[in-house]
From TrEMBL:
<protein>
    <submittedName>
        <fullName>Divalent-cation tolerance protein CutA</fullName>
    </submittedName>
</protein>
<dbReference type="GO" id="GO:0005507">
    <property type="term" value="F:copper ion binding"/>
</dbReference>
<dbReference type="InterPro" id="IPR011322">
    <property type="entry name" value="N-reg_PII-like_a/b"/>
</dbReference>
<dbReference type="InterPro" id="IPR015867">
    <property type="entry name" value="N-reg_PII/ATP_PRibTrfase_C"/>
</dbReference>
<comment type="similarity">
    <text>Belongs to the CutA family.</text>
</comment>
<dbReference type="InterPro" id="IPR004323">
    <property type="entry name" value="Ion_tolerance_CutA"/>
</dbReference>
<dbReference type="Pfam" id="PF03091">
    <property type="entry name" value="CutA1"/>
</dbReference>
<dbReference type="GO" id="GO:0010038">
    <property type="term" value="P:response to metal ion"/>
</dbReference>
Amino acid sequence: MAQAYLQVTTTTDSRQEAAGIAKSAVQERLAACAQLVGPIASTYWWEGEIESAEEWMIFFKTTAESFEELADLITELHSYDTPEIIATPVVAGSTDYLQWITDQTAELEETGE
């Protein structure tokens, strides 16, 4: 069976927190890449009220195999009670880029680190 790929997103209320989560995910090889976008304007329901906030979004490029560990790491490092963690399947991509994701998220296992 072919490797399955995901783009996982989360948002935080500060660039510093977003950068820390992104760096940890890449260091742990749970994502090959993490991209920060922001600030973005978010409007949402929270505890019975409509809230608005400025947030930073992180896009992680990863494999389906790494998702659960990545989600656990995001939850552990995140300051929100209920962080957004959404995985979108990558339906298609360049063969070389997808292979790069595989290589970068598998390197720890291969080197025994």
